[in-house]
Amino acid sequence: MRPRNPAGRLPEPPSPIADDGDESHFCRTCAFAGACLAVGYGKPELSALHCLVEHVGPYRAGEHIFRTGDPFRAIFAVRAGTVKTCLVDKDGREQVLGFYLPGEVIGLNAIYPDHFPCDAVALETAYFCRFSFPAMSALAARMPAVQQHLFRLLSKELGAASLLAGDHSADERMAAFLVDLGERYASRGFSGTQFQLSMSRGDIANYLRLAAETVSRVLGRFRAQGLIEIEGRALTLRDAAGLRRIGQSLLPE
Amino acid sequence: MNHAIAVPEFDPELIARYDTAGPRYTSYPTAPQFRADFGEAQLREAIRASNEEPIPRPLSLYVHVPFCLSPCFYCGCNRVITRDMGKADRYLERLYREIELLAPLFDRDRPVRQLHFGGGTPNFLDIARMGELMESLARHFSFGRRGEREFGIEIDPRFADGDYVRGLGALGFDRVSVGIQDFDPAVQAAVNRIQGVAETRAVIEGARAAGFASVSVDLIYGLPRQTLAGFERTLEEVLALAPDRVAVYGYAHLPQLFKAQRQIEAGELPDPATRLALFGRALEKLCGAGYVYVGMDHFARADDELARAQRAGTLQRNFQGYSTHGDCDIVGLGVSAIGRIGDSYSQNARDLAGYYAALDAGRLPVARGLLLDEDDLIRRALIGELMCHGELDTTEFGARHRLVFAEYFAAELARLRPLADDGLVALDGAAIRVTPRGRLLLRSIAMCFDAYLGDGSAPARYSRTI
């Protein structure tokens, strides 16, 4: 065996892993940290209320977190990794509904039908906090701040879907997609200008309703225009303002 | 980058001292590290992942033609000596099958920017067969547009003429690499390769007439019966042919590994001092004639794109030596061919029987390979940088690969220390610079960073550094 030499490795950089929580503290980036702490509850208090926050994972790339039709018991906050949600029709054709980054929550769209209306698949090794939903609803009933937070998450989810509505050019869609990703990373305290595009180009194409070749062509054009730098999956937004101008009709003010 | 283009300093005493067996680092990790647990499933997965990058890399195809009409005794390549064209047809049948299996795994929007035919002797195939093979490749892969691609082939001029080369030009080839080794008749007799200057010139002139963009020739020093005076005449004849690139390889006498070499009388090999002087003479002559020493075995005209890529900092290492297309995924086709896709290397079965058996069973003929881990990728980048540009900014490199250079490579820097004391490299804490004295000993410098050396698995399989 050759010698291993881990000495001298720097820690993972401003890398998107929301994993600074423990048994009694929320991760800084957790969707629920703000809401719960604002009303004086930490994790110990929540578990006393039987609102168990359970760490689950790792899920490897390609593994399902839940499948369409599974009974709805819990929502999941992403601690590390990236997740896509998608629908698969009876011919096996997939439609990508969205991507979820560390600190974001999946499963909210299952609240009404009481079963999951889509699949959730890890795009790279992923870890989650699992929140039992019955316990969480009980908590929301007693704590308006938690309820408000749930509503906020739900409306965000609805807003995200409209990113793709309407008749827009490939450049507009791609620019809006990149700006949106950057802003979501930034809002969780990660770098909003340098991140990994962990979704495959097929998934990006599917999500943006473009051909895979178009995804690469548009990214290549953005690179030639100095808007982005891209090496493998490592993306740098060189000119976020320029991208925002291109994608503005799809982006909130 | 000026360091890299400086004329190297030729110090026979120093070179003799560092003259040990070492890899050429056309890949890192080197081929002896490839493992049998990398097979078809792993290759398919590597290709799938490579298609899913946001901007998938363009492709570079390598096609191996293993046949030769006559055995050159110095040869260490994977080849089969025959005059039977039926053998070529049976091989082509399998090669087509491999193309049909492999090509559809790559997304169609990945253009072929580079194609290289190596051997063996690629011109074992006549123009009709070459045409059919090119047609199959064009049908199953997406060839880049003319002007955005380079198609090269290795030619043995003893079995080709101007017409043949013009035929290749019509098929889209625009680079040729011509084997010469040495024009000295005594040497040619000793290595069983009798080749005249005139037939060599016919091929080169045919290529120029057909509009080929680049002509490269190969020489070998260290062959039996080679003398300084004879090699000097060869060099003059080569300069008169005015190739764009010249490769000057050192002969590695490893008769226990390569059967053909057992025909060579060890007593006729030049002694180490002569061997060095032969290379020294080539260096002096070529640099004197305006060629730039690119590194390792390679020289190029100052206006050749290899030399230009080196000045621009975009040169990369590949299996043919140096390349301006390092950004491509390499697809290896044919027996023993090596591919480099994403973070993987893979090699096809090295014997015809194994290659045929896999394809006859409908399987990809990959026999071994390697999935590079993060440490491999870091070292590959580092060794490539030193071999191509002779200079490494350790701070910038550390930032790019997320490491504290002096800590991560503490043991390697200690190994490099005596080389620095000998003036091969300059270490100033912020950079590693290969000096003009070190330019001829790039392998010895790179070996300091090879994590696989010293585990007892390799040295005997490598040729000497010079």
Automatic annotation (TrEMBL), chain A:
Subunit and interaction comment: Homodimer.
Gene3D superfamilies attached to this UniProt entry: Jelly Rolls (2.60.120.10), Winged helix-like DNA-binding domain superfamily/Winged helix DNA-binding domain (1.10.10.10)
Lyase among keywords: no
PANTHER family named among the record's database cross-references: CRP FAMILY TRANSCRIPTIONAL REGULATORY PROTEIN, FUMARATE AND NITRATE REDUCTION REGULATORY PROTEIN
Natural source organism: Fulvimonas soli
Record keywords: Activator, Allosteric enzyme, c-di-GMP, DNA-binding, Repressor, Transcription, Transcription regulation, Virulence
HTH crp-type domain location: 168-241
Compartments reported by the entry: Cytoplasm
Transcription regulation among keywords: yes
Domain Cyclic nucleotide-binding: 59-112
Record-given protein name: CRP-like protein Clp
Chief place of localization: cytoplasm
Any one Gene Ontology molecular-function term assigned to this protein's record: DNA binding
UniProt cross-references to SUPFAM superfamilies, sorted A to Z: cAMP-binding domain-like, Winged helix' DNA-binding domain
A GO CC annotation given for this chain: cytosol
